[in-house]
């Protein structure tokens, strides 16, 4: 019999993180711990971003508490499908994997977990004032990043355009790939013109230029955009396989961005990859601002997918109170240092 408990551990940003949905200073965080009757344990992180996740913040801890009680009473199988709670499903899936592999957060042994190879990542540039964004860009380039993901949609567009123009004037296409992420900030009516103007600067892709749920407008944008369009928020909350297939068949994006924590777990991300390849869409994986526990599970699984392009996994240094782990960013790559230890006991895990 498996027993389940949970703890809360709000994650505090080193500096407020700006997106088109506002500034984030703190991120809610829950860990679920499973314990078998033989004493083996496994830990998983509930992935959650306010305003983006399917779950509602005011209900989440009550739901996590209830699920842990049901599992402990033997009234719920921890592998049960939870379409209304994808972040909790991610926690349970990864906790079970951890329990089954020895409880050492070593879910998918590989060259990555042996410290022999790193995962290339994009450098994330947060929204803010133009000088602040320029300082971030210079810092990332100095560290060796050759792919930058820039958030757009919060500043005046003329300022954002000037910033992209400056970046491209400083770094040519041979030196730097630029990915943009609008987080759905633009209306369908204004998106096409903005993409036309941005296309002068050799942009790799634009993530979610308009808000999710406007499928006809997104379909048209994907067909006409001078910049390849990637779907992100559009994928969240689609819990049925046929609906996932219908989305890609209708919209035909150039890329899809996969956040396993918000989609329902690694197995759901695997299905999205299969469908993307069926519809000839590119893909890459990204964390959803998880702590090192969630990031570790996603990174280890990502390595197993035979990746060929930089991923969005360089988020481990965002927090003042992240859990110490073998994960380390070095240059533009995420590494697993097997000689370093997890410090899960520091927060009661």
What does this entry look like structurally?
There is one protein chain. This protein is of the alpha/beta class. It has 2 domains: 3-100, Enolase-like, domain 1, CATH 3.30.390.10; 119-347, Alpha-Beta Barrel (TIM Barrel). Helices cover 35% and strands 20% of the residues. It is built from 10 helices and 15 strands. The protein has helices spanning 57-72, 86-100, 130-143, 157-170, 188-198, 215-224, 241-251, 260-263, 266-278, 292-304, and strands at 3-8, 11-19, 22-27, 30-35, 41-46, 119-120, 123-125, 147-151, 177-181, 205-207, 229-231, 255-258, 282-285, 327-330, 333-336. The protein has a 7-stranded parallel sheet, covered by helices on one side. Helix 3 (130-143) runs parallel beside helix 4 and helix 7 packs parallel to helix 9. The longest helix has 16 residues, at 57-72. It starts with a strand and ends in a 13-residue tail after the last strand.
Briefly, what is this?
The protein has 349 residues and is of the alpha/beta class.
At CATH's second level, what is the architecture of the largest domain?
Alpha-Beta Barrel
- Name the overall outline: globular
Tally of DSSP helical segments: 10
- Give the domain tally: 2
Specify the biggest β-sheet. 7 strands, parallel
Q: Helix and strand layout, with pairings?
A:
Layout: E1 3-8, E2 11-19, E3 22-27, E4 30-35, E5 41-46, H1 57-72, H2 86-100, E6 119-120, E7 123-125, H3 130-143, E8 147-151, H4 157-170, E9 177-181, H5 188-198, E10 205-207, H6 215-224, E11 229-231, H7 241-251, E12 255-258, H8 260-263, H9 266-278, E13 282-285, H10 292-304, E14 327-330, E15 333-336
Parallel strand pairs: 7-8, 8-9, 9-10, 10-11, 11-12, 12-13
Antiparallel strand pairs: 1-4, 2-3, 4-5, 6-15, 14-15
Helix pairs in contact: 3-4, 7-9
């Amino acid at each position: 019999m498996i027993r389940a408990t949970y703890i809360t551990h709000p994650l505090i940003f080193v500096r407020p993180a700006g997106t088109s949905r506002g500034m984030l200073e703190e991120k809610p965080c829950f860990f679920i711990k499973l314990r078998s009757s033989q004493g083996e344990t496994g830990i998983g992180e509930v992935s959650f971003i306010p305003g983006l996740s399917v779950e509602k913040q005011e209900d989440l801890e009550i739901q996590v508490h209830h699920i842990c009680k049901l599992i402990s009473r033997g009234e719920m199988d921890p592998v049960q499908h939870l379409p209304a709670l994808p972040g909790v499903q991610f926690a349970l899936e990864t906790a079970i994997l951890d329990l089954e592999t020895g409880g050492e957060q070593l879910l998918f042994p590989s060259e990555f977990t042996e410290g022999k190879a790193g995962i290339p990542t994009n450098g994330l540039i947060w929204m803010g004032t133009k000088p602040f964004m320029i300082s971030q860009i210079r810092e990332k380039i100095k560290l060796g990043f050759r792919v930058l993901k820039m958030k757009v949609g919060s500043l005046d567009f003329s300022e954002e355009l000037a910033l992209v123009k400056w970046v491209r004037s400083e770094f040519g296409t041979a030196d730097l790939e630029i990915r943009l992420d609008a987080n759905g900030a633009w209306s369908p009516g204004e998106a096409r013109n903005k993409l036309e103007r941005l296309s002068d600067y050799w942009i790799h892709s634009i993530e979610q230029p308009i808000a999710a749920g406007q499928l006809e407008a997104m379909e048209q944008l994907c067909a006409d955009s001078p910049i390849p369009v990637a779907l992100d928020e559009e994928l969240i909350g689609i819990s049925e396989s046929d609906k996932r297939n219908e989305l890609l068949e209708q919209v035909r994006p150039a890329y899809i961005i996969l956040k396993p924590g918000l989609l329902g777990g690694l197995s759901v991300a695997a299905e999205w990859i299969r469908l993307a390849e069926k519809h000839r869409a590119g893909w890459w994986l990204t964390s959803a601002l998880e702590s090192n526990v969630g990031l570790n599970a996603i990174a280890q699984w990502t390595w197993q997918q035979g990746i060929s392009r930089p991923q969005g996994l360089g988020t481990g240094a965002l927090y003042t109170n992240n859990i110490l782990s073998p994960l380390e960013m070095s240059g533009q790559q995420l590494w697993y240092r097997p000689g370093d230890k997890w410090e899960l006991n520091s927060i009661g895990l």
